Structure prediction request, 572 residues.
Amino acid sequence: MLDVEKMFGVNRDSPCVKLIYGLSGSGKTVFLCESIRKSARSGAFSGQHRWIIFDVKHDGYQTLAKPVDSVEEAISKLEKDRVVVIHPNIETAKMELDIIISHLFAIAEVNPNFSASFILEESSTFIGSSVGSIPSSVKRFATQGRSKGLSMLIVNQRALSNKWVDSQAQGMTIFRLPLPDAEMLKKRWGLDFQEIDAHLKETKFSFAYYDLESLDLDYYRPITIPDLRIPIVMPKKSSWSKLFTGVLEMAYVDLVSTGVTPVQGGTTYSYSYDTPISADGSPHLTHIGFQIDGVVATGAVYKSAGIGNLIQNYRIKIGADTLLNFDDTAAYSADNTTQSNISCLAAKVGGWDTCTESAADNFVGELTLPFGLDASRSHRVNISITLGSETAWCGKAFTVGSTDFNMVHFYGTAKDSTLYGSRQDFTLTNGAQRTLTCYGKTGWNMLGVVYLNDQVADEVSEIRPNNGSFRALSVQQWRVLDSTYTEGFQTTKPDSNVWSAVNARAGFLFLDLKRLTAGADISMAFTATADSTASLYPVWVAPLSQGTASPVRQTQKSVSSTARDVEGQSKI
Prediction:
């Protein structure tokens, strides 16, 4: 029998992406059921490992666990059951797939001992033949799941013809297939699949395993079904379920194509679209992200930071209102090897900047910021984004026609609306002090002010708020106040898919104002240590009404809050 540890990825030690193909009646479902049963009783898998079967065909896994019909019930069962079988409604299966995958990532974030094997049955329901015809949640699972101990098994009756799926997989289990599939696989992998099929005919329910990394091919006899199937039970002692409390921040994720054609060398892209209305009753659109699903020429050398290093200017308008107008021309450098200014901003307000190498010379990067919008109605979004040269960033140009730009929408419950003010420039003179005022916005609390220098260098010695009786604080003291030194700035390094971190970025400060009184201005005095041009960006928050729509029913739910995210990192 094929080693179950190799098949499912043990805990966080060896997560994987595997392909399983075979006609109905060829034995693949029995193989999976008994392999999962053996794995769950194996000492190789911790008590915190879970097997989740997402089965749109609603048949074949009932011997493992009683199927559930809703994602909410599945999430509840994850606390106490090692194996969970989900029978989604075909009409809402895509949405439910996004929700359960988001939840698994959320658990993995808060519990470093958690791991899971996710079995996606009848995967052709979700994955088409083109590279781009894959749900963003599945892409995220395949590209980022391994760093979280999350394995994926892509199961289908017919062999999928999808180059992106093939590029992510480490192995392929093959049962009997129709002749056209064998011919397609022969062309794709260079193996004589007709000969393989002839070998499998000799013994009913036998199978082959092709290692896509070592290129080894092995044959296996049919799995033995025991006369008595021992129930799968949880270990007697476990306090792990406590870690589930409050991990589900977002209900689901939606992907919208920008409709633009990327070019080489960097340029300004402008496009518009309408946000999808919440599909599950989630009241808010909590975050909006810009995603690059990139292919670059062979030999790329990625830097240690995310795609924020490519973004020179980023403007988002909702109708006539400008929500973000971040212009980083003063200190912008595409080849910067540490986190960019916009990446640091995202980290401070509860967003993120990630970039992961999905395959050789392929990467998926995403810069996401919190906004908080009413999800019960559609919003007209106007985007203008200027990208620098990808060649300066990674050494190679985009492969035009294979690189996609998408917008990512996160639905759930938000406490705050977040608004990012436009840049205010001013000059500083070495040894002199200058006072600047950031103006308030009626009805909005000023959460903080972003200070940027025109160089990647700290060229001020101290900053003093003039509102009230405050004393001047040094740059280092401001960073202590908002926990920059303790929390740092993190991003993924694409070429190794590991987290990198710095404890500060020179020339960037987030001046945490602890929610300045709504509408109030802030006056600050800056003492310079060099002649420079600096910039200020205010960040405002306002309560977002919870009554705009009925929230989705969830077993666990946390509410996203930009103010909370900032305050949670900040110490007084």
User: Anything to note?
Assistant: The radius of gyration is 26 Å. The chain has three domains: 4-232, 253-417, 420-541+559-569. Confidence is low (pLDDT under 50) at residues 236-249, 546-558.
